[in-house]
Amino acid sequence: MNEFGTTITCMDGRVQETVQQYVKDNYNVKYVDTITLAGPVKVIALKKQKSILHNLQFRSDISVNGHKSNIIAVVGHHDCAGIVEDDDTQVEFIKESVKTIKEWYTGVTVIGLWLDEKFQITKLND
What we know:
Blueprint: E1 2-10, H1 16-27, E2 29-37, H2 40-46, H3 50-66, E3 71-77, H4 87-104, E4 109-115, E5 121-123
Parallel strand pairs: 1-2, 1-3, 3-4
Antiparallel strand pairs: 4-5
């Protein structure tokens, strides 16, 4: 069992426990470092808010380098108050975010997760 996994997810409290349990159950980790922000997948995908993007990477670095996390889940969800775009656009933001985070880290598994209107998780990549 690995000690740590990481999630980069919305600050919305409706997603936290579900996502943490998913990562624990599916990636055999004991703890999940949770990095939150309103609509992080849009920030990462569009790369326009440089200071926020650098802050997300700084916190991810601590999890990956300090805690030796070997899985990062990038998470978006239906009805996100931080993203006004529709669900399909959010899913594209997640996919683009996965690509960006894979550029940040080699040897770390990066996955995209989508939570629908019932907060059921769909994994977007392998």
